Amino acid sequence: MKRAKNKNMVVLVVIVIVTLTSSIGYSALQSNLKVTADLNVLKDYVPDGTLYDVMHHISEMDNVSSKYVSSPSGIDFSEVSSDTNGKGVYELNTTKDEKYPIHYYRGEVDNNVIFANFCWKIIRTTETGGIKLIYNGEPSDDGKCDNIGTSTQIGTSSYNEKYDEAKYVGYKYDNDEVDSTIKIKIDEWYKNNIEGKYSNYLEDTVFCNDRSISGQQGVFRFYEPRQRSYVSNIPTLECIQESDKFTVSNGKLKYPVGLITSDETIYAGGIYGKLSKFYLKNNENYWMMSPSNFDDNPSSLQHTTDELDGDCYAEIMYVRSDGRFWDLIVLDSLGIRPVLSLKHETKYLSGNGSKETPLLITPITKSLYNVIKSKSVFDNVKSEYVSSDTGIDFSKISSDTNGKGVYELHTTKDDEHPIYYYRGAVTDNNIIFADFCWKIIRTTETGGIKLIYNGEPSSDNKCINTIGENTQIGQSAYNENYDESKYVGYKYDNDEVDSTIKTKIESWYKTNIDEKKDASGKSYTTYIEDLEFCNDKSISSTSGSNIYYGPRYRNYEQKKPSLECPQDKDKSTVSNKKLTYPVGLITADEVVYAGGVYATSNNTYYLYTDQWYWTISPFYFDSSYAYVWHVPSTGSISCGRVYSDGGGVRPVVNLSSNIKVTGGGTSNNPYMVQ
């Protein structure tokens, strides 16, 4: 269908996003996501979701007047971008008849993208329909791309550590056999952050280190990028000399990454020596890839090096912190903002390009431990949802004044991995792992993440189970025998015999976790740490033949929970052969930290399911019956006789400390283990 431009029509298009094509090696974790954007397009046109297509259909021709271009002849590249000289997406008129016309962003625009866990700005499309991006830092915890300053760079570097020959304007030099200083740094960054996992999204486009000469006096010379930027103000995206085209395929690049050119900066809205407010202004100085001159008068260039030897200096263009661009001696240290190019077929998952909701190319993966940590406050001080100056009162249920959110266990603040736990009516501790929904209970002593089973996700990967039997794998007695104290044990008879509930849990785990494979063919058990499950049988007191256990004393008498396991013999792991698989149950203490209190209803905290289910913690033996703590249907915490076969079973596992996730933790957008 031939495109028509309608400058007066703005319609709201809802784009249904599909998964990326297999040719770029990506299978979307979430399908049927929707995106909205204000697009200058025909009403009957439905974009296919590629970034190129979206830019193509919102662009205006750059040689005519339009909403933000007042001149009938189009954009004036001798002036900076503005509300009358270009702001938006434009089609390069000289390419209109090509297979993939060039479209470029200009001025102060919403051109933010998240790719490979980094923020980027879209510069333009390429001759092959790809999308050229410039690095713009890391997304915030809530997925925004609002970086400015040094955070928009991967670091600083000289362009070249040598400067006294013309060859040092080269991104490579000495017949393109030697890498420049900045190329070495960019390649190293690419190797560590993009290569492998994300490289199949990228095209091998040309990076132009245009060393064509516009004028020369003796050994001194001026390069064409300076001529176009400073004299003629006529930019071009052509790379004049074949020898200055850098690609992987021609052997001049190791990786498909480089720097922005001065011409691209002009199209974006910058001008040599003139202040500009455009999307490439980041309040820092950073390098371009375009040579300026080989000069004998560096005093005018405001270089930062105190002393220079020799009479001649190689100079490269750079973007100044105030939005101008200029030239500078290659020896000086400026910011590095890598540039790369996505393939033409690249689609996006969500977003509209704004700083708040960038176009999401690949899901953001983040350390789950660090995300939880970033949300936490200490539990022994007053905070937003804790009204007492001394912190949370564990003798009372969770509430808007007694704990709701993520808390750092203050007694562990000096540990290598402080404990962070969820409490109260939280809505952001949902996670999908091994095709099941779970609730995050807390972090572990090793920086891992403890989860409790919460049912199966919906067909669109939401965790909407909050109450009911679907939050458990079934029902079971804790032990079918009950008339001896040993039956409070998760194992008993010198830990030789499994409890009834342990048998049920491990059978479920074997089928649903251990024998189930992820996309790479690995068992889901490889994601899980072998950490202890504490079946605390320490005795706090006795009365006749009655035996009272430590968990009862802490959570019924003292109202002071603890995550310590007092006796080594009560610690069950796979490595100590007390467990067949690394799975168990929640402890009574963990329920109290989460917001439960003995015999006090609580239907607002995340462990309330309107069902009753078992913990792993002994309560007491009354000379006739063994009792174990459980969570009743009221959401309190209480005890039940171990033979009660109506108790719900909610397995608990510990994810490894290196787990990374996508998503936001809500029921509609749960964390997804990567």
What do these coordinates show?
With 674 residues, this protein is an alpha+beta fold. The protein has 2 domains: 11-213 and 220-360, no CATH class; 367-673, no CATH class. Helices cover 11% and strands 25% of the residues. The protein contains 8 helices and 42 strands. The chain has a 7-stranded mixed sheet with strand order 22-41-42-26-27-28-40. A 5-stranded mixed sheet has the order 20-8-7-6-21. β36 (613-621) and β37 form a beta hairpin. The radius of gyration is 31 Å and the shape is elongated. The model is unreliable at 1-47 and 299-308 (pLDDT under 50).
Topology readout:
Blueprint: E1 11-16, E2 34-39, H1 51-58, E3 60-61, E4 88-91, E5 103-106, E6 112-115, E7 118-125, E8 131-135, E9 156-158, E10 172-173, E11 178-179, H2 181-193, E12 207-208, E13 213-217, E14 220-223, H3 224-232, E15 245-246, H4 262-268, E16 286-295, E17 313-319, E18 325-329, E19 333-335, E20 339-342, E21 359-360, E22 366-367, H5 368-374, E23 377-378, E24 405-408, E25 420-423, E26 430-433, E27 436-443, E28 449-453, E29 475-476, E30 491-492, E31 497-498, H6 500-514, E32 533-534, E33 539-543, E34 546-549, H7 550-558, E35 571-572, H8 588-594, E36 613-621, E37 626-631, E38 638-641, E39 647-648, E40 652-655, E41 660-662, E42 671-673
Parallel strand pairs: 3-4, 6-21, 23-24, 26-42
Antiparallel strand pairs: 1-2, 4-5, 6-7, 7-8, 8-20, 9-19, 10-11, 12-15, 13-14, 14-16, 16-17, 17-18, 22-41, 24-25, 26-27, 27-28, 28-40, 29-39, 30-31, 32-35, 33-34, 34-36, 36-37, 37-38, 41-42
